[in-house]
Specification:
This protein is α+β, with helices and mostly antiparallel strands. It has helices at about 10-15, 20-25, 45-70, 80-85, 90-100; strands at about 5-10, 30-35, 35-40. Strands 1-2-3 form a 3-stranded mixed β-sheet.
Length: about 120
């Protein structure tokens, strides 16, 4: 069941006092407004707890759905398989990766891979 939200100007809430605001929030969510803009919301503890529980359950459902998608993902390929698919020499790619990681701390930029061998 949807909770009714009551907009209440801060000036009126101030005149009525905190006890009246607490009483009103037992049955309704109260949106305190200033110049027509909502600046705060007062709600009952049970509704706040219910909403927090709903959000936690929704997060858990999203995580479980994501885990199911990952579990259904096709297996990953090895470097050798990928290189074979696109016509590269896997050993050459490994040597180049080692060269780049070795030179990572130097000021010189690594040279491009020469596809001719």
């Amino acid at each position: 069941m949807a909770t009714k939200t009551v907009n209440l100007p801060i000036s009126l809430a101030s005149r009525k006092g905190v006890p009246a605001l607490a009483k009103l929030s037992e049955a309704n969510r109260v949106a305190l407004t200033s110049h027509g803009r909502v600046v705060a919301v007062v709600d009952s503890p049970s509704r706040a707890d219910d909403q927090a529980r709903d959000i936690t359950e929704a997060k858990r459902a999203v995580l479980e759905a994501a885990a199911d998608l990952v579990a259904q993902r096709p297996p990953r390929h090895t470097l050798d398989e990928l290189c074979e698919r696109i016509g590269l020499d896997a050993d050459r790619v490994r040597r180049r990766a080692t060269e780049i990681s070795t030179n990572a701390g130097s000021d010189s930029l690594p040279t491009a891979i020469n596809r001719q061998g």
